Hints:
Number of strands: 8
CATH class: Alpha Beta
Strand order of the largest sheet: 1-7-6-5-2
Order of helices and strands: HHHEHEHEEEEEE
Distance between the termini: 21 Å
Number of helices: 5
Number of domains: 1
Largest sheet: 5 strands, mixed
Strand content: 25-35%
Oligomer: single chain
Amino acid sequence: MKIPAFVCALLGTITLPMAAGTPEQEKAFTDKYIKAFEGKGTATLESFLYTQGADPEIVGFYKMMQSGEAGEKITTIELINLTPEDVKKASTPMDTPAGGKVCLTLKPTKKLSIKVEKKHANGSSSSSSENFVAEKDGKFVIPILGPCK
């Protein structure tokens, strides 16, 4: 099963938004994410992932993708309200290479948008990513795909 290619495609198209948190909760979430990301705090980064009911292979891929650039400088991070298109993407089951269907394990309410800048000997480069964010038990989390229910 080629989960990594599937999840790469998924990460480019699906991002879960956060639930109705307060501006203070959103700022606390993004501040904690920045601190963990720039400080290479992989345990903290992994704590943002909502893994209950998720496919174990997809969980592993999310962990790898989330920490792959850890230690770099985040230039922009924001929680964005979902568009109608985002809501449709988040609620549509996706096919797996093995022929099954996967869905987000929680209904997203926001989208986490991150831009990272890397500096190296030949100059600099930047990358961006988006993830859907949901709220579970008063905490913002990044839900991961699992079998559709």
